[in-house]
Amino acid sequence: MIAETQYVKLRKEYNSSGDKSMSSLKSGMNRKTGSKYLKLGKGPLELKQPHTWRTRKDPFEDVIDEVYKKLNVAEDLQALTIFENLQGQYPNKFHDGQLRTLERRVKDWKLQNGKSKLVSFPQVHTPGDLMELDWTCMNKLEITISGELFKHKLCHTILTYSNWEWAEIAYSENFLSLKKTFQSTIYNLGAVPKILQMDNSSTATHNVKKGKKARVLNDSYSSLLDHYKVKSRMINVNSPDENGDIESANGHLKNRIDQGLIFRGSRDFLTIEDYDIFLKEILCKVNANRAEKVKIELDVMHKLPGLRLPEYSEEDKMVNSFGMIRVKNISYSLPSRFKGYRVRVRVYDDVIKVFSGRLELAVLPRKRGTVYSVDYRHIIESLRRKPGAFANCQYKDQLFPSDIYITAYELFKSKYNELRADKEYIEIVYFAFKHGEEKVASLLEELIESNSLLSMDSVKAKLNIQVKIPHINIPKPSLLSFDKFLSKVGGLVCLLTPLF
After folding, report:
1. Cα distances (angstroms) measured from residue 199 to each of 31, 203, 243
2. pLDDT over threshold 60, residue 421
3. What is the mean pLDDT of the chain?
4. Pairwise CA distance, residues 97 & 79, whole Å
5. What digits encode the pLDDT tens for the residues 301-322?
6. C-alpha–C-alpha distance, residues 291 and 189, integer Å
7. Which one in 111, 123, 231, 256 has a CA-CA gap of 20 to 30 Å to 218?
8. How many CB atoms lie within 10 A of CB 70?
């Protein structure tokens, strides 16, 4: 670079004076060097020859053909793998400092002989045309709700022209989460795109015949698109790059959320609603920078229809003899007083609402990956009357409100026979139902830590539960009524005397 700067000054001085010697002197060059550059009309960078010769012996000269043969068979082999194999094959011949040399040789071979790679193609995005939708897993961010790991996904949408995006918390890739997110997106935008693009997820498509590759739209998905006058576009199977905008946006959004959590100083939220507010604040802040392009899109997008579709499915269910309803292959417990009644169930992505007519009876958290979802409060009174049912109950593991209750039950089993242990534990759970789960849990911890006698009586004593003996008011008998009774008895004796 110094020589090139000198050459620039040499040319400037020579053009003004025409004197090679003086120009070379003023530019800090030897006269012969300056004359050479002026004669050739080229500077040092133009005259520099590439370095193609070796300054030391190639340590891999004897084995390089062997290395290339391995690469011809398996191009994905890494230089480190080959190097470690050579070290084992030729002990003491190669040391770790030579790995970088082999990496350069492998890189050069792949550049000259490697297979063709799949490249991406820049796309022309038309305002208001295309929205892409996809789900992305959030578990790696280790977000917690009240200390418990919150396993979830985000259903994520993006307008490909302006990059305006939206997302909703989802628990699985199902139609309800798709419907909720799409409607939430367009109602936040205030307009509808012409095309919705996604992969061939079973939430939107299905096979017409088993074994056939061609897939068609589900009726529910088609109805959603028809209502909003949106066209469907599906990418090819195993071609996520065709959904490149949303795939890229997934990574950027997760990074923003991660950074927001770091800046916040905690990954824990009190409720899911608090986490959702945090998520929406990030999205609104990002979308604010895209306002100009969004305005262009809104001018050419469809208007929203007057009716927003319900974001739930509805079913009628009979509460069975177990006090349960079966929804999406999972049995949910209800208060035992509902047994034998028919109820109407609204299934949302995150909750299940139970109605009788317009009366909302219960809101249950929706479960996945289990057979039963049981609240011990619903069945504890029946279990007190039938304690023998506890031992082999199919959902026994759900009748322990927290770990301390499990510990208490194990202590009961070590002290009593099975039936007695079950009765003692059921009574403890009943106390939790009546007097507060956390209050009884703290009493159990206190008794266990102090090595005190653990029993339902000791818990009762801690709770200050006293047996109330009802007061019975017995009035004093009236002597007048006694005289009337005797007179009646005397008359009866007189009537019966002739018989004897």
Report:
1. 71, 10, 8
2. yes
3. 87
4. 13
5. 999 998 999 999 999 999 999 9
6. 11
7. 123
8. 15
User: What's the token pair of residue 196?
Assistant: 């919705």
Burial of residue 229, with CB atoms counted within 10 A of its CB: 0-12 exposed, 13-18 middle, 19 or more buried: exposed
- Specify whether the backbone of 41 is left (phi greater than 0), alpha (psi in -120 to 50) or beta: left
pLDDT tens per residue across span 6-21: 888 888 888 888 888 8
Tokens linked to 417? 């026979």
Q: Are 267 and 261 in contact (CB under 8 A)?
A: yes
| Per-residue pLDDT band at 499 (split at 50, 70, 90) | very low
Q: Is the pLDDT of residue 38 over 70?
A: yes
**Dihedral of CA 190/193/199/205: which sign?**
positive
Residue type, 72: N
Give every CB contact of residue 103 below 8 A, 6+ residues apart in sequence: 79, 80
pLDDT of 34 higher than 80? yes
483 or 347, greater pLDDT: 347
Among 452, 412, 416, 446, residue whose Cα is nearest residue 428: 412
Which tokens sit at 10?
């040499």
Structure tokens at 372: 């039963």
Query: End-to-end alpha-carbon separation of the chain, Å?
Result: 151
CB half-sphere exposure, 281, CA atoms < 13 A: 10
Q: By CB neighbour count within 10 A (0-12 exposed, 13-18 middle, 19+ buried), where does 412 fall? A: buried
